[in-house]
Amino acid sequence: MSEPAVKVEAFHHHDEEGTRLGFWLFLFTELLLFGAFFIVYGVYRTAHLNDFKIAAESLNTGIGTTNTIILLASSLTMVLSLNAMKAGRVKLAKSMLLFTMALGTTFLVIKGFEWNAKFAHHLFLQTSAAIAEGKGSPLLTPGPDMLPDGQVLFYGLYFIMTGTHALHIIIGVVWMGIVYFWISKGSINPDNAGVLERCGLYWHLVDVIWIFLFPLYYLVA
Amino acid sequence: MNTKEQSFSPRGPVLVFSALIVLTLATVLLSGLDVGNTGALLIAMSVASVKAGLVLYFFMHLNHEPLIFKLFVALAFVTLATLFLLTFSDYAFRGIA
Lengths: 221, 97
What we know:
heterodimer; A: mainly alpha; Four Helix Bundle (Hemerythrin (Met), subunit A); B: mainly alpha; 2 domains; 3 helices; 72% helix
């Protein structure tokens, strides 16, 4: 009777700590990805300091601050979700996870409005093909209306960096949706909360990256 | 895992969150100071680093992780800092920046 039970136990061995360490390794690669962006930003900012300052003034500090607070709040609800799960309060964990998803979505909606305002002012990323066909923004196309190089670089980096970050938010929210489904099915439960924990680690790292993006784009103008 | 049967208390996380909000508002207010470019950058990045540290240590539960985890994360940031330092010192002596 006890012998097969031991075997099953051995087959289902799962090293939670090793898994977590592996996930941290993935997070380090994310750090390097954004680190490269920050280096590019740093070098161009030093080379085009005045243009960066002028361009940065077109970004709304109030909106940036609001979005920062929203992301910080989403980190709080995420941590509460995991703590609730570990304490066996599954329902609370689920509602906190829903809150986190809602906050992440709110962040994206605000970001969307912000980008939209930039598009309305003819500021957007464009391809060289679009420029060649005369479909590019006059502000970013070589010609009499073109902004100084430094400002073109600023907006390019702004769209790429906040865009890559927004992509991570989208992935995070989708992941949370899947985790929510698994919690509902019971495969994630107080005794097996590793997936929720890693989802949380990912979400917090995305928050950490925004913590650095925010001052560089909205504050040091 | 460390604390399997912990009871749920929102106090700690809410406290950390409050600190993060205070620091966010502080960095917005401090950005209005006229301390020059380097000064502003230094203040903004210092506050951001403290905020990131709070998120990493408390929200990402590094405070509950064994020492080897903490060393791992520290090593990752030291690597990143080294990359920054080397790149910027390179540019500084090329006459580009």
